[in-house]
Write a structure and sequence with these properties.
It is a single chain. It contains eleven helices and nine strands. It is an alpha/beta fold and 295 residues long. The chain has one domain. It has a seven-stranded mixed sheet, sandwiched between helices. A two-stranded antiparallel sheet has the order 6-7. Helix 2 (22-39) crosses helix 4. The longest helix is centred in the first third of the chain and has 25 residues, at 61-85. It starts with a helix and ends in a 21-residue tail after the last helix.
Length: 295
């Protein structure tokens, strides 16, 4: 019953953003974001615990609370863009997204490289599913986690797969990932959240579990790893941050997987450290080794 009520609230939200004049949409989204921030005490607590781990006393409580409040705005803007993505063409995306260093992806495509995009729940991460195949005319396969809400899940899947993107369920994606690389599709994985089967890495100076499948696949197929983050700079303003390519051949020895995984964590940390308000702080990232901070 709760899932259905939540879905109805989403449908009302979707209806409102579609009928409101564009000049009023931002104000409405900001109101929704501020309301969610006020109501959602539990996830505010998780977010503050994460910021305490990330920045310690280098940021004041006031600064941390301001970051948390901004994360809700980024999330609501993300939901709005998810609705826009359902009917948006390439010109619509290009009007909103500024590209930074995307030559690394163009070069990899031109050189017929196997490509793995690594990203995080940062800014508008859904653009990886919808914008990339349109812009670069290259089929993609992305790994995602189905929503727990069965009513919303169908719409999510339809939107994510609308532009020549194949979606794989995170729980049993192994064979699909290998198949996608063999078919020369661009592969994309979100790697920032806790993974109980992952390996230990240092992230913001604290030990946590991190997915290692990107490293193993890159080594097996000599695939280039390209970090990609869609930073939210404001309402309908985004910057696609393409990181420098990470080559598996640059990491040798018996700790190749661990070192390659740690490199991805470092790149991700650098981007998040500069733009913490864009990261999805409301999850329990360090729960494997520091569960007490989320209680």
């Amino acid at each position: 019953m709760l899932d259905y009520i939540t879905y109805l609230i989403y449908k009302i939200f979707k209806f409102k953003v579609k009928i409101l004049p564009k000049s009023m949409v931002k104000s409405y989204l900001d109101l929704v974001a501020n309301s969610l921030h006020f109501i959602d005490r539990r996830h505010r607590r998780y977010a503050l615990a994460n910021l305490d781990i990330m920045f310690g006393k280098s940021k004041t409580l006031e600064e941390k609370n301001a970051i948390i409040k901004q994360t809700y705005k980024v999330l609501v803007y993300n939901l709005y863009e998810f609705i826009q993505n359902q009917t948006q063409d390439l010109a619509g995306y290009e009007a909103k997204i500024t590209l930074q260093n995307d030559q690394v992806l163009k070069d990899a495509i031109a050189n017929d490289r196997k490509i793995i995009l690594v990203t995080a729940h940062f800014g508008n991460w859904e653009y990886g599913n919808t914008f990339i195949p349109l812009k670069y005319n290259k089929a993609t396969t992305m790994v995602g986690k189905p929503m727990r809400n069965k009513y919303f899940n169908g719409e999510l899947k339809d939107t994510r797969t609308s532009n020549d993107t194949e979606m794989l369920d995170r729980k049993n994606a192994g064979k699909g990932l290998v198949k996608a690389l063999k078919q020369d599709k661009i592969l994309g994985l979100v790697i920032d959240q806790h993974d109980s089967k992952g390996i230990d890495v240092e992230f913001f100076g604290k030990k946590c579990k991190m997915i290692e499948s990107t490293s193993r696949l890159a080594i097996k197929f000599d695939a280039v790893l390209i970090p990609l983050f869609f930073r939210c700079d404001g309402f309908e303003k985004y910057t696609a941050l393409f990181g420098d390519p990470i080559e598996p051949k640059d990491f040798k020895g018996e700790n190749q997987v661990e070192n390659l995984t740690y490199k991805q964590a470092q790149v991700m940390e650098d981007v998040i450290r500069q733009n913490p308000e864009n990261w999805f702080l409301q999850h329990r990232r360090w729960k494997a080794y520091f569960p007490e901070v989320y209680k």
